[in-house]
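Much of the work behind modern protein science is quiet bookkeeping, done one molecule at a time. The fold becomes a row of whole numbers, each drawn from a learned catalogue of backbone shapes. The protein below has been through that process, and both of its lines are reproduced in full.
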Amino acid sequence: MLDVVFFVLLILGFCSAALFANWCEKQVNK
């Protein structure tokens, strides 16, 4: 059970990091 929770958190963290990097690029390009 715990390994599943860890896996989900890992995916969420990766997605949020990718979105944050994408947002930073847009802010820099302004």
Remarks:
- The two ends are 44 Å apart (CA to CA).
- The chain has a mean pLDDT of 94.
- DSSP finds one helix and no strands in the chain.
